[in-house]
Amino acid sequence: RHRKPPQRAVETSSPPMETRSEANVPAGSVAVMLESELDESTRVQGWMQMKNTNPSHLQWAVSMSDSPEDEVGWGLSLGGSMQQHPASWDHFQFEAFLKFNLSRRFSLQ
After folding, report:
1. 20 to 30 A from 2, CA-CA: which of 11, 15, 16, 84?
2. What ranges does the record give for the region Disordered, renumbered to this chain (predicted)?
């Protein structure tokens, strides 16, 4: 007569999406962000990010905005992602906005 071992509930979970399963080393990214105020209302900023799992894949954005408190403001942003080897654009994005300050407490953007 053979005894069956008791059944055990086994819970498994998949590793987080941002891990390499070969070495089980968590993936991350390296990012650089720069920001500068040219005057009271004008700002320029940019950032770049590279993932550790795929350093040839680069994401980036550059933006400039001018939003004075008592005048019409505006902003522009360019960004995207690309592969470095071979050099090709995966995604490119352009955004623009206008900001109307209708009173001290209400603005429309």
Report:
1. 11
2. 1-25
